[in-house]
């Protein structure tokens, strides 16, 4: 069982399309997190930045970019990249140094400025890059994969397009009261089903947008938190950043095939299942203990997959939970009370940290207008390209 670290403060920059440098958003979020913690910038001894590959040299050295913008204070610095799991990996770097006794107060920041339209590989020909190859050889944009996953749910479990649309309806309703969300407007099932088909069976409103945004978290040792009057701080009980186990028999982006299992057999857990499983095992917490979840809803159908991957219900039953209202606010296990990526859009280095911000507010009882009553344990889930994945388990 792991030793927890304390979340002293969290902060965000509202998400949208603002057209500014990513560092502008990151500094806004960082200052908000420091203010929330009541900790001076000069007391921070470690800065970990989430790398953003689309923003030039400064994005590749995000940790020092944020430290410089806040004003050099002599802190140690690191930069992390793990695609959509970047924020959690950056947070894990900070946690590791705190638990090793090498740091007491760490600031973790993720921020992004995204291009218009769906995310795509960087320019240039890279024949050994599977992310580039899927676009060049097959025209496989991210929504094409989302559609494959959605079709798989339909074929295996009888999910319908109306079920997928209902996920969007739920998340849009949750996001109405989130001041950081980009989209704050209710939609109906009919709105989703009559929006343009992007990749059958998914419509435009089934798929998240790309956004500018930022999130930041201040983490400390438990001892530091106690000394500074933060005895009841939300704790990080576990962070999972596991890679897949061979054979990987369920296709994941950007791969175009799965591994053969005839000789070695199928692993006990799929990759996505193993992400949450590792977090539960490390924390000594079971899925039955979870009160609220923030999951990676790149598409509406993917949210349903994650509910099962995290063990919040048996395989094939996520639609039943959705239809019964169990994943809505007031239900048994609210999912994405923030509104999720459906309301935020993707800002890649920031989104795993944004989930931690939301769960911190939920466990503190500060999520005004979208509060999960009595929430004491929360879990996040993210998946990035190339075997990156993350789950953060928080408790109070």
What key attributes describe this structure?
17% strand; 396 residues; two-stranded antiparallel sheet; 12 strands; alpha+beta; single chain; ten-stranded mixed β-sheet; globular
Layout of secondary structure:
Layout (H helix, E strand, L loop, with lengths): L4 E12 L5 H16 L8 E5 L5 H5 L1 H9 L5 E5 L5 H14 L5 E8 L17 H9 L3 H16 L3 H15 L13 H5 L3 E3 L2 E2 L8 E9 L1 H6 L6 E7 L30 H13 L8 E3 L5 H10 L8 H7 L15 H5 L3 H17 L12 E4 L1 E2 L5 E7 L1
Parallel strand pairs: 2-3, 2-4, 9-10
Antiparallel strand pairs: 1-7, 1-8, 4-7, 5-6, 8-12, 10-12, 11-12
Short note summarizing the structure:
Helices cover 37% and strands 17% of the residues. The chain has 14 helices and 12 strands.
